[in-house]
Amino acid sequence: MSKFAVLGYGVVGSGVVELFYKNKEKIQKTAGHEMDLKYILDIREFPDSPYKEKIVNSIDLIVNDNEITTVAECMGGVEPAFTFTRQCLEKGISVCTSNKELVAKKGDILFEIAKNNNCNYFYEASVGGAIPIMRPLHRCLAGNDITSVAGILNGTTNFILTKMINDGMDFDDALKLAQQLGYAESNPAADIEGHDACRKICIISSLVYGRHVYPDSVYTKGITDIQLKDVQIVDKFGAIKLIAQVRRLENGKILPTVMPMIVPRESMLSNVSDVFNAVMVCGDGIDKAMFYGRGAGKLPTASAVMGDIIEAEKHSMTILSQCWDKSEGNSFIEDYKAFSSKMYFRIQTENTSAIEEECGQVSYIYNDNKEAAFVTEKMTLDKAMGIQSALAEKNIITAAMLPILDD
Amino acid sequence: MSKFAVLGYGVVGSGVVELFYKNKEKIQKTAGHEMDLKYILDIREFPDSPYKEKIVNSIDLIVNDNEITTVAECMGGVEPAFTFTRQCLEKGISVCTSNKELVAKKGDILFEIAKNNNCNYFYEASVGGAIPIMRPLHRCLAGNDITSVAGILNGTTNFILTKMINDGMDFDDALKLAQQLGYAESNPAADIEGHDACRKICIISSLVYGRHVYPDSVYTKGITDIQLKDVQIVDKFGAIKLIAQVRRLENGKILPTVMPMIVPRESMLSNVSDVFNAVMVCGDGIDKAMFYGRGAGKLPTASAVMGDIIEAEKHSMTILSQCWDKSEGNSFIEDYKAFSSKMYFRIQTENTSAIEEECGQVSYIYNDNKEAAFVTEKMTLDKAMGIQSALAEKNIITAAMLPILDD
């Protein structure tokens, strides 16, 4: 018999409790022994909860209880989650987290503590909600040299973009609908400005390339500038999606980015709609593989936490292949301006000769004699931004510029 | 330092050797220690291979070498693979296999031997080639009650159907093209008659529901009857795919099937084209999650074997959650006629009143006064087959009948 605790009885934490009791028999069979939930930590009281007797408000009670072998941290935010996680790990209690902000900002420190105390800090639920992605990356795909990972990692923005694509809504209306449906918060900045997706690509980049990538070293652009006109123009050949990506470049550096991109119809990622998430992994063995599912929500996220709890219960040793090292400086991260792809431009001019002068060979996809939209050959973001400046000097406005995903 | 051997130096076996030496540094880092390949077993000689000195033709040499801790079985077929695998496991050597026929027919016996000798029999590569699916199912999704798994598990048939859908080729021409491109064998029966997909859904069913499901207890129908006309009629709302599926029914039994089905456009599975494979898993926590990638080929399959080899090197104990029990009889498997879904019919008649008499409420999707195609409400295959017989008694020919996937 082993006992675990849940920190935070909000959406995810209550989902973990619900899923555990619903599937307890199967979970115990997989774990190989009997298990029970002993504590739920929350500062609030839940007088109507069937588990009200398990609810406690002191982390010390949990940390000092020798029966507790695993803790699920479903609190979110850096503090007090960081302090509580550290306390657990220092006592040799494995921690399974859904807290992407904490992993992205402090993962390296927590892995170090876990290693020193021979327990595990698991984080499957921190990226892609229900989607198994961390374990496949460090276990199943361990024989591969992974060249890139590109994902739709934020359900809120994907819902907004889907409404723009399928229903012709503009950004503001789609955001309002997302808020009405509870997919976006009243302050939606973390989602629509790309910070949530940024944390997730930090975690993926750190795992795949072995060194901690901090959020502030990742170029992050949200979807607030996306105009319905571009969504409609590119509809023939692709869909605009917020893509969180990391590439390993030929110079050995890595380039993590979060920005809206045009995903060509041939890519499976273009079919990922509504609040669903997906991650496309490219490697020298697999060519490409994609993982798709619900990226958020009570039971989907709880499913990932539960999988980690079972794994933690089965492992008495730190799993080093799912940890990464501290990074000293950012010298292994390439400047975002070196990002290279075909580019989509929409510019406001009658004078298409200016386009060819600046961009070279292009493929037009729209031209109404006032505006033209076209796709360039592959170029760096640096060059694309130079083109924008050069056009501006000729009094030509670039209404939109979007990189095109190449997978 | 640990040493492993590869049994069978064909497509997959040579891929394992290639991938290992290409990514040796990373693989050793993940495994946590130095590794090397010591033997390659094959009855053929490879005088031009850079690894010719590792090639041996006696399994005894491998089995009796105490340095060998893991073996990759990439031979295919039941014998001599079964005997060799048994010999390895009996010596406590873990075996990682890409051999779906052997796992589907003898997995239960081999797990028993592995358990008794405290080693592992891993089979990630036996289903879905490069796609991580076994480990996600028994680890990451372990907190779920899994209600169904539906997959496109055979690349050859998916290539043929894609050519019919996208290029308007008929079945015979598409098969010939697949043979020319090396996707189909000169005797394509195992693929086009569904036996390959059947072995794979047996493995998935056994893992998910814990009891061995043998190929001969699975209703298996291939794609040889699929007509271009139906592919084109259903194109508006779906794609015909060979779907290998297992469902857990309300009566507690499971129902594994392999048959062509219409996959509605809303399902991500409808976008899986060419030789790619995908597996959609439904569970009470995750709702649904899909895994997509290359289902066959040298390096993709080798990637899965390599992931298993690394895992085997890291585990000194049998992982019981990836084993299943022997099944005594088939009483836990429901008769295929109880399979229930909406049905697509194409019948040759001018007399649509006969349709409504037999089928009740239907939605027409095609009618040229000689033939009509329509979709019924949900019904069992038993009832659908009864309708075919009743129509035949009225001299009305059913030209096509296909179940519609509901995910």
Explain what you see.
Two copies of one chain form a homodimer. The first copy, chain A, is α/β, with parallel strands linked by helices. Chain A folds into three domains: 2-129 and 299-322, Rossmann fold (3-Layer(aba) Sandwich), CATH 3.40.50; 134-294, Dihydrodipicolinate Reductase, domain 2, CATH 3.30.360; 342-403, Alpha-Beta Plaits (2-Layer Sandwich), CATH 3.30.70. Chain A is 36% helix and 26% strand. Chain A has helices at 11-22, 24-31, 59-63, 81-90, 100-116, 134-140, 155-167, 171-180, 189-192, 195-209, 228-234, 298-314, 352-359, 381-393; strands at residues 2-7, 35-41, 55-56, 68-73, 94-97, 121-122, 146-152, 219-220, 238-248, 254-264, 276-283, 287-294, 340-348, 362-367, 371-380, 397-403. In chain A, the strands form three sheets. Chain A has a six-stranded parallel β-sheet, with helices on both faces. In chain A, helix 1 packs across helix 12 (298-314) and helix 5 (100-116) packs parallel to helix 10. The radius of gyration of chain A is 23 Å and the shape is elongated.
Fold blueprint:
The structure is a homodimer of 407-residue chains.
Chain A: E1 2-7, H1 11-22, H2 24-31, E2 35-41, E3 55-56, H3 59-63, E4 68-73, H4 81-90, E5 94-97, H5 100-116, E6 121-122, H6 134-140, E7 146-152, H7 155-167, H8 171-180, H9 189-192, H10 195-209, E8 219-220, H11 228-234, E9 238-248, E10 254-264, E11 276-283, E12 287-294, H12 298-314, E13 340-348, H13 352-359, E14 362-367, E15 371-380, H14 381-393, E16 397-403
Helix pairs in contact in A: 1-12, 2-12, 4-5, 5-10, 7-8, 13-14
